[in-house]
Every structure is written in C-alpha cells, then in structure tokens.
Amino acid sequence: WNMISSWWRKAAKPAVTSPPDQQRPDHDTMPIGTQAQVATDDGDATPKAKPLTNGAPVPQFSLEAPSNPAQIDEDSSDEEIEMPPPQFPSLNSAQRASNPTSSSANSLFVPRTGPSLMPPPPRPASTTANPRLGVPSTGLKVASLSSSLRVPTTGPLPNRGPPSSSPASSLAAPLTTSVPPPNPRKKVILSPGHSPLDWANLQKTNSNLSGVPSLQRVTPSMLKAKNGRKGRPTWSSYKGRVYNMTPYLSFHPGGEGELKRAAGKDGEKLFMDVHPWVNWDNMLESCLVGIMVSENDPRAGMGSQLDDMD
Ligand code: HEM
To answer: Where is the composition biased (Acidic residues) (predicted)?
Structure first.
C-alpha cells in the first residue's frame, strides 16, 4: 500500500504544482500501468490524476497467501512471507496435551466443558452485538462472566501435571477437599512452664535429675523394673546408656504416653523412628543413671564414676 500511495503521489504531483497547460507527467520514470494523465478537460480548478487505460495491465495486490508457493516473489521471500497465524495453544503445549481430543478445527478455542481460565468463545452472532469482540450487547450478567473466569472448584486445574486418563480421575485434587498431610506431627500442647527452654533451664540448675546418688551398672532386669508403673521411676536405655525419664515426661513435646512406650526397656528404635535428629545425649545429661551391663555382671547395681565404667 505504501508503494501504491508513493506512486500515486508522484503521478499527481505535477497536477498540483504546475499550471494545467504545463502538466506533462514523466511517463518514462513511471512504472507501467501506473502512469497518470492530468484531467484538464473537465474545467476543475484542481485537476485530478487519472490512471491511463491504454491497455497496460494494472498490477493487482492481495494480502492473501498465493495458493501456489512458486508465486512467492524470490526477493520478498527473505523479508515478508505470508505465514498463517500462530497456533494457540502451541502444538506442544501442556494445555493442548491436556485436551488431546480437540481437533485442529477447534484448536483456537478452549472448550467450554474443559477447565480454563480463558473467557468462553464468542457467542453466536444472533446474541452478539459486536461479533469481533464476542461480548453480548444485552444480558451481560456479572455472575456468568465471573464464573467463566474463575478457577473451577471441581476437576483438574489447567496446565497442572500430565493429562489424566479420564477426566474424572484427575491428578489435581479438588479445591474443596482438604488432603491431610502424609505424616502428621504428633506434637502435644505442653503445659505452661514445660517448654524445651524450661527443660534446658531446669537441667542447668539441677545437675542431677537421675534419682540416684551415683552412676549405676544396670542389668536388663533392673531396667525392666523401672517401668514407671505404681509410682516407680521411668528408666529407658539409649545406645547402652540408662536415663531416668521421669523428670522429662512432662517436658516431652511428643507427650508422656509416647515417651512411656520406651519405659523399662531400650527405646533407641522407637526414638530413631520418630526423631533421629534429636540429640538425647545433651537433653538428658542430668538424667543419666548409668550404663547397661549383662544380667550376670558381678558389679551390677554398684555405683561408680563414668570413667571407671569405660
Ligand atoms: C531420650 C528420649 C527422648 C527425647 C529426649 C525426646 C525428645 C523429643 C523432642 C525434642 C521432640 C520435638 C522434636 C521436634 O520438634 O522436632 C520430640 C517429639 C516427639 N517425640 Fe520424643 N523424645 C524422646 C523419646 C521419644 C520416644 C521413645 C518416643 C516414642 C516412642 C517419642 C515420640 C515423640 C513424638 C511422637 C514426638 C512428636 C513428633 C513430632 O514432633 O513430629 N519420643 N521428642
């Protein structure tokens, strides 16, 4: 169009700048078919240029892509090649993959039944004032518009994960369903003054919370007797060390009941299953009773220093 208008301006220029009797368009410099002659015979003050109709073919321009690819001008192939509009969604997009049944004919539109954040496709012309916009002239209900834009509360979220085999069994959980976490924490609410910090302070002020005057050699039968029942202390062993758990019971974030499952026995496996990251050695330092020995150890029950036990 720019080419045509520049030719047109060039052809018409003498008519505007020169008196009518001197108007001689430069036919030699004009492209064939676009030569113009000045209309001087109609008596207009401002003559108008008219295309010559001397049999020369007038070139035709079209925005349509030629049906025959060979018709594409070689020079223009580098610069402007008529391409079809880009596909949306693109051919390898997850959105297209999530609806493999959609054909190329309707690929430009998101199906009404499918999950989408896109507005619905334009309505039929009979109900549409402006078919280019696809907005109904009357009866535009806020509810219907907003419902088309909001995320569906049932069904899969768009563009999330691979396509499911059936629409009903979507991988995406419905937004209305609350899915419990796979491994819920079993922490309890500790009573006031029994936080981990309170326990740390208690350990600082009381260096011996073990309930025994000195470190003991503990046999399995001795350990079993300290099971916390009937007012007895609660002992447990961890990696060969015996601790008095009684003062710690009410400070245990997992609750007394959990801690008592290891009462009177080795609690290492239970402990490691729940919180292997917890440093029990530090936390129960002041509760250390002694070390485990075999049942028939002659020094069983005797007090000693930890260095002696090594
Ligand atoms: C030496 C003995 C033990 C100590 C010092 C101890 C200490 C702790 C500590 C510090 C926590 C909080 C962990 C955190 O917030 O990440 C905790 C939580 C917990 N403990 Fe223990 N624990 C002991 C033994 C046990 C045993 C024997 C059991 C069970 C058989 C147990 C069951 C739990 C549970 C269920 C929780 C809550 C789980 C969670 O926080 O996710 N604990 N314990």
So the answer is: 72-82
